[in-house]
Write a structure and sequence with these properties.
Elements lengths: L2 E3 L2 E3 L5 E7 L14 H13 L4 E5 L11 H18 L4 E5 L3 H10 L3 E3 L8 H9 L2 E5 L18 H19 L6 E4 L8 H9 L2 H4 L6 E2 L5 H7 L7 H13 L4 E4 L2 H15 L13
Parallel strand pairs: 3-4, 3-10, 4-5, 5-6, 6-7, 7-8, 9-10
Antiparallel strand pairs: 1-2
Helix pairs in contact: 2-3, 3-4, 6-8, 9-10
């Protein structure tokens, strides 16, 4: 399926790279490094220069932390979306939110994609995407509500549960008027899952690809990588690139990352190895 987001069209064999820009003071990874407006805009510029196709802007930390009202989330995201749109007219702008009220405001400001990482916690969010012609990420949390961690969660088959949930949400979105070619599904590693579940999803990602919906993976520096390798967030780069490589080889299409430059090279290499792209240049043994 061809994926159309904003002014960009991504062919079935084309990888789309999504850079994370957190407008939060308490992000698990950057600890507020892009909370200030200038720092955040500089991060966007740097990500674009490093090869990002999309920017994902988040105004609320995913995990535990200080409560963030809808009004505060709007304050952190809406004007920033407008500023990014003015600065980079052709860039695909995604906003990580579960609130329909926020979704409508950011779409009006120029957002192209709503990244609903909390699996339709607000059922009106898909309606907002339809109203504004925005794309939508359909995710899986196993019933976990926003900003909560899993506790002794169990699945008979986590992959089957994910496939059923995201497929249902995607078809509901289409029924509400969201463009079919603007929908992405996300197994949502670590959300409502323990590390064994996230590892199982990664090794069986092709089963999500077989649904026909473009698959997004957001594995960058996550806890399942840290627990696998016994590394803190600042030392998970190698594990992240390994998980990205496996996911890309198995057919994922969109990749949400912190380190754009490293991810771009990784995905470009996978694309050449898969035969969907050509090397930048071949000289060895020919000159």
């Amino acid at each position: 399926m061809t994926l159309r987001l904003g002014q960009r069209t991504f062919a079935p064999e084309q990888f789309a790279l999504m850079a994370i820009v957190n407008r939060t003071p308490d992000s698990f990874y950057d600890r507020g490094a892009t909370f200030a407006d200038n720092a955040a805009l500089e991060a966007v510029d740097r990500a674009v220069a490093d090869g990002a196709d999309l920017i994902d802007i988040g105004g609320v930390k995913a995990g535990y932390g200080e409560p963030v009202s809808e009004e505060e989330e709007i304050r952190r995201t809406v004007d920033f979306v407008a500023a990014v749109r003015e600065r980079h007219p052709d860039l695909v702008i995604s906003v990580d939110t579960w609130r329909a009220g926020v979704a409508r405001r950011v779409c009006a400001a120029g957002a192209d994609l709503l990244n609903d990482t909390w699996s339709g916690a607000d059922p009106e969010l898909a309606e907002a995407a339809a109203e504004y012609g925005a794309g939508l990420v359909c995710s899986h949390t196993g019933g976990a509500v926003p900003r909560t961690d899993p506790h002794r969660v169990a699945y008979a088959d986590v992959v089957a549960d994910v496939v059923e949930t995201v497929s249902r949400l995607a078809e509901r979105a289409v029924a509400l008027g969201v463009r079919r070619d603007g929908i992405v599904i996300d197994p949502t590693h670590d959300f409502g899952k323990n590390s064994l579940h996230s590892l199982e999803l990664t090794r069986r990602l092709d089963e999500l690809v077989e649904t026909g919906w473009p698959v997004l993976v957001a594995v960058s520096n996550k806890d399942f990588i840290g627990e696998t390798l016994d590394r803190p967030p600042s030392q998970r780069a190698v594990g992240t690139l390994t998980a990205l490589t496996v996911s890309a080889w198995l057919g994922a299409r969109v990749f949400r990352v912190h380190d754009v430059a490293a991810a771009r090279q990784t995905l470009d290499m996978v694309a050449v190895l898969r035969g969907s792209a050509q090397p930048a240049g071949i000289r060895r043994g020919l000159v």
